Amino acid sequence: MILLIPVYNPESGFKQFITELTVQNFISKIILVNDGSIINTDYFNEVKHEKIIFLEHEINKGKGSALKTGFKYYVENLSEDYTGLITADADGQHLIEDILALGEMFSKNSNELIIGARELKSSIPFRSYFGNSIISFMFGFLYSVKLKDTQTGLRAIPNKLLNELLKINNVGYDFEMIMLCRAIRLGVDIKECQIKTVYLGKNESSHFNPILDSFKIIWAMFKQYFTATSS
């Protein structure tokens, strides 16, 4: 499988995470997209490996933009040999065992969008619980599709959806919400793969703003919904 990881100012455990990924036989290539991190470029030289394809933005453009850069490379260079790719976050929230489990599920359902679903409980950091709970509820209300975790970054994306995703202009966290909306519009089934809920240091390393980014995501959701129903 192909794994895509957008990276912005990674934490100390990032290099160990990547090193452990490179020894997994199930993973063929890892596309790392450095989204304008404010760190010495030598940092990324320490994780060089024959499996790693390193792409870079000179400035920070947003998670959606980093994902699109990885998608574009994959479509142009790798898609003929694979049925899709998997995205994961760089902040330690996704365990390798869960990445592999989602990949295994995708290998049997390669025409579906499969997302890693965390249990959203009140014991998780407020900034995560607040945003995820409200957004997931509103998504289910609009689209009649019940998903536990619409904001998960762990996703297996089929080839037939990727060209559509490259057309999305949004470049922030709302990109992943629009991905779900476009999948529904194109008739791509969305399935969930149960994963563990991991938040390191109360999720303080996250760049997600629970108020501003949640508003942008909800706005994008409604815009996608009413655009689709009016066309």
Helix and strand sequence: EHEHEHEHEHEHHEH
The CATH homologous superfamily is called Spore Coat Polysaccharide Biosynthesis Protein SpsA, Chain A
Query: What's the count of strands?
Result: 7
Question: What is the CATH topology assignment?
Answer: Spore Coat Polysaccharide Biosynthesis Protein SpsA, Chain A
At the first level of CATH, what is the class?
Alpha Beta
User: Judging by the overall fold, what is the CATH architecture?
Assistant: Alpha-Beta Complex
Amount of beta strand: 15-25%
Unreliable stretches, pLDDT < 50, 5 or more residues?
A: none
Largest sheet geometry:
7 strands, mixed
Oligomeric description of these chains: single chain
Supply Rg.
17 Å
Overall tally of structural domains: 1
Strand order of the largest sheet: 3-2-1-4-6-5-7
> Helicity level, as a percent range?
40-55%
Structural class: alpha/beta
Note the overall shape.
globular
Give structural notes:
This protein has one domain: Alpha-Beta Complex (Spore Coat Polysaccharide Biosynthesis Protein SpsA, Chain A). 42% of the residues lie in helices and 16% in strands. It is built from eight helices and seven strands. Helix 2 links the parallel strand 2 and strand 3 (52-57). Helix 7 (174-185) runs parallel beside helix 8 (212-230). The protein is globular, with a radius of gyration of 17 Å.
